[in-house]
Write a structure and sequence with these properties.
By secondary structure, the chain is mainly β. The chain is built from 13 helices and 42 strands. A hairpin with a 6-residue loop joins strand 36 and strand 37.
């Protein structure tokens, strides 16, 4: 508070106009120091403080020119009026300041600007209004009222409907929000002096122009007060807006209860949902890899039907069913057009619950309405003739073939009679409570396995209560006679993180360079402590210091690079201008990160105007150079390494028990013969498992290459899953190879090799692997069984550059001696979490393959780094 008052004093001491103060001086000075030097002034407005840098004028002049060109391109009377006003506005060179609080800036020197002799600081008086710019090119100043959102200011100035506003806050932040009934969202209040650009719904202003305008207005500082200063145009009560939420249906996807909606969660969302509505219980896992795609996997339990109707399996389980779902957004909601989505339920399962739907959603304030048409299970009422019959009469008949499951039933999709469904979700004022009402498209008189259920009414009613930030509880009455209970755990995969409280403290960064000679042993040890990387050698080439890192791993590489740079800057001689981190994998140097010392340090000791910022860390290929290197530090890796841990194996969905598990102690060892050659192995000792329940032996028409799982897990308590010799190398730039032999995994041993072509910085790579293997004995000792084969694949890897999506296509021969193709597509978020799907199709028919028809699956990979308090 003291710092805030001290900053405010500048307006009275250095008043240039009735509404602003300014500073200029010869010697450089921190902004925090300048703020503390100013006398107190109650009417000063630190939120609107403006740091003006002449070097930014050129870039902002270009911004102004682009804005004027865009306005000229619109060619209306309003754009001419708006353009004339914009021409009068100055180009200020303003650079936003994080916080205009002296004490905060002193505690965060990297955010505390250094004021140079040609810089200016403007500290205005506190304005009392918010300025709305209408699409008629007029400016309307409205008295600021705490607690009011942008919509209230817009409605005070313009009666025309407005869907979106762009706000330039007085501190220079630029924001965009939906404010209409159909898209209203949580938002920051406009602060005194904010500019609000509010084009009407019926107008045709391009979004690009709107963004240019609000960015230029953000350089102007707070909007001046207008004629309505001091007025309150908003009589009556105020309502705090709560976020509009999407919630899970009984089936796990975003929806109401039994019915889906067209809504989507944000990209990166993850949900685990369990719902129970007798006789069904569903366990659902859904992810949102993109904002237009929702995908999920489900296990369903039908508690009034046996797992095996024939009784031959002699299991006490009830019937289980699994399936995959997908929903695609077709159209995004606008003021007059609803959001549309198309979806498929149980698209590659047994078909017990399979169905398709087309659904639309329209929002009106707190109500979100949905209406859709469904085929198959969700449209089981079947009281609507299929509208697609006009395309082909074949759409009138739906073929139901549960069979072995796993097939894509293209011949059944959107076929047969249909049914309407719909409903509404209401965001109640009793946050966090949501109410739901729906009309079900299923009458439950055509249930799988003749498991028909009585339905008193097609209307279902329920509520969702957010018990915690990541937990929703659901309660509903469905079919007019059945209570549904559900729970949903949800999170954002792309935002998962854990504060690294146990990481070592960062090395402070000083502006100057050291003058004394360093202790390179201490430097190497501190580099290893800060990065968790093994530092093999530190060398020097002229003005460049190189650090060779062996087998570097990690999720957040930039964090580790910055930590390493801080250590090197603290210790490296003053004449060193560059740091290079050279990464070696198994003895071969792969790539380097090069750090510009001066630029890196400058960015960390003060904020820089945009025009002075540059890339401080760049990646480059390993370069051979004639410059002689001098070795400053060297530490050979240990010849032998070992660690003790715990392994976990599991099997889900089998006839003997839904979940089988095994915990084993695992000893891992590695003996380095050379940097590029080593022997590795793993020894396991069983500790706890329930695989004694595993009795069922599935029939197979193919060689049993993976179905001896029970025998491998239960024959011996002490096993040797892996013991192999590996050698890797670099044939030439961009060409790598590996050869290996031994007991490669639990079930197979043999010899193999791989060649990989990976150009530096390329989005593509290509590899070929070949393996001659033999099936191991069930004891996992040194013996083998009779089965042997040669397997291998050619694989193309493609980093698409689109939303961090990686695609892999493999063609070759598999363990069962069949040949085919595997396609794998995944998205990896910035925190290392990845979600993906794969499918394999070979020359084995669905009937010969058996249950599932062909190999396919979805996967989710969460690195321990996002769950631990220390970087891993």
């Amino acid at each position: 508070m003291t710092a805030l008052l001290a900053a405010a004093g500048a307006a009275l001491l250095l008043t240039l106009t009735p509404s602003s103060g300014a500073w200029a001086q010869e010697a450089p000075k921190r902004l925090s120091d300048w703020l503390l030097e100013q006398p107190k002034a109650p009417d000063a407005y630190p939120l609107g403080l403006s740091w003006r840098v002449p070097e930014e004028v050129a870039a902002q002049s270009l911004l102004k020119r682009d804005l004027l060109d865009s306005l000229a391109g619109v060619g209306t009377e309003a754009s001419v009026r708006l353009g004339a006003w914009v021409r009068e506005l100055p180009v200020t060179g303003r650079v936003p300041v994080a916080v205009a609080d002296a004490r905060w800036l002193q505690g965060n020197p990297a955010r505390d600007p250094v004021l140079q002799s040609n810089h200016r600081v403007v500290l205005p008086l506190r304005p009392m209004s918010v300025t709305v710019i209408t699409d008629r090119g007029e400016r309307c100043a409205v008295a600021h009222t705490p607690g009011r959102e942008a919509r209230a200011y817009v409605e005070a100035c313009d009666a025309n409907p407005v869907d979106r506003v762009w706000i330039a806050q007085p501190d220079g932040r630029v924001q965009r929000y939906g404010i209409a009934l159909w898209n209203r969202e949580m938002q920051d209040e406009p602060a005194p002096g904010a500019w609000i650009w509010a084009p009407a719904r019926a107008s045709d202003w391009p979004d690009k122009l709107s963004e240019l305008l609000v960015r230029f207005l953000a350089t102007q500082g707070p909007a001046p007060d207008g004629t309505k200063r001091g007025q309150d145009p908003f009589p009556g009560g105020k309502r705090v807006l709560t976020p509009f939420r999407v919630t899970a249906s009984d089936w796990g996807n975003v929806g109401l209860l039994q019915t889906p909606t067209a809504r989507m969660a944000r990209a990166g969302s993850f949900r685990f949902n369990y719902s129970r509505m007798p006789p069904y219980a569903h366990g659902n896992i859904f992810v949102q890899p993109f904002d237009w795609l929702e995908a999920g996997f489900r296990y369903s339990n039908i508690n009034n039907r046996p797992y095996d109707p024939t009784g031959t399996l002699n299991t006490g389980q009830s019937l289980k069913d699994k399936g995959f779902d997908a929903k695609f957004r077709l159209w995004t909601e606008s003021a007059y057009v609803p959001e549309f989505a198309i979806g498929l339920r149980d698209l590659a399962g047994t078909g017990l619950f399979s169905g398709e739907y087309l659904v639309a959603n329209k929002r009106t304030g707190d109500f979100d309405w949905s209406l859709g048409l469904a085929w198959g299970y969700p449209g089981g009422r079947g009281d609507v003739r299929n509208p697609l019959r006009f395309i082909s009469k074949s759409f009138e008949t739906r073929k139901i073939d549960v069979g072995l499951g796993g097939k894509l039933g293209f011949g059944s999709y959107f076929r047969g009679p249909a049914a309407f469904f719909g409903g509404v979700q209401y965001r109640s004022p009793w946050d966090p409570l949501i109410l739901k009402l729906e009309y079900d498209g299923n009458d439950y008189q055509h249930e799988p396995q003749a498991n028909n259920q009585r339905q008193r009414t097609p209307w279902n009613f329920g509520l969702v209560y957010r018990a915690a930030r990541f937990v929703d509880l659901s309660l509903a009455v469905e079919r007019g006679n059945t209570v549904m209970l559900g729970v949903t755990f949800h999170t954002d995969l792309d935002r998962m993180q854990m504060p690294k409280l146990n990481d070592p403290p960062r090395v402070p960064v000083a502006a100057g360079r050291p003058q004394g000679a360093p202790d390179w042993s201490a430097t190497g040890a501190e580099l290893a402590r800060q990065t968790d990387w093994r530092v093999e050698r530190i060398t020097r080439r002229g003005r460049e210091l190189r650090v060779i890192v062996d087998d570097a791993e990690g999720i957040h590489w930039r964090e580790r690079v910055d930590r390493a740079a801080a250590v090197l800057h603290r210790d490296a001689p003053a004449e060193v201008d560059r740091f290079a981190l050279a990464y070696r994998q198994r003895g071969a140097e792969i790539a380097e990160h090069v750090i510009d010392r001066e630029a890196w340090v400058t960015e960390r000791v003060q904020p820089l105007p945009p025009g002075e910022r540059r890339e401080t860390v760049v990646a480059r290929d390993v370069r051979s150079t004639a410059v002689e290197e001098s070795t400053l530090y060297e530490r050979k890796p240990p010849r032998f390494e070992s660690r003790l841990g715990m392994d976990f194996n599991y099997t889900l969905g089998g006839p003997d028990a839904f979940a089988l598990y095994q915990f084993t102690l695992a000893a891992h060892g590695k003996l380095r013969l050379r940097p590029d050659t080593w022997v590795s192995g793993r020894l396991r000792l069983g500790v706890l498992d329930n695989y004694d329940k595993f009795k069922f032996t599935a029939p197979s028409e193919l060689p049993r290459v993976r179905t001896f799982l029970r025998e491998y897990l239960t024959t011996s308590a002490l096993t040797l899953p892996n013991l192999q010799l590996t050698h890797v190398g670099k044939l030439s730039p961009n060409h790598y190879y590996s050869v290996y032999g031994g007991y490669l995994e639990e079930m197979f041993g043999g010899v193999g090799g791989e060649w990989l072509y990976r150009p530096f910085a390329s989005r593509s790579a290509f590899g070929v692997d070949v393996n001659a293997v033999k099936q191991r004995d069930f004891h996992q000792n040194f013996a083998f069984r009779d089965y042997r084969t040669v397997t291998g694949h050619a694989t193309w890897y493609w980093d698409t550059g689109w939303h961090d999506v990686l695609a892999k296509v493999s063609v070759g021969r598999y363990l069962a001696k069949d040949s085919g193709v595997t396609v794998d597509v995944s998205r990896t978020f910035r925190n290392g979490v990845s979600v993906g799907a794969f499918a394999t199709k070979t020359n084995v028919s669905a009937a010969q393959f058996g249950e599932g028809s062909f190999d396919k699956g979805v996967y989710l990979s969460i690195p321990f780094d996002v769950m631990l308090t220390r970087s891993s």
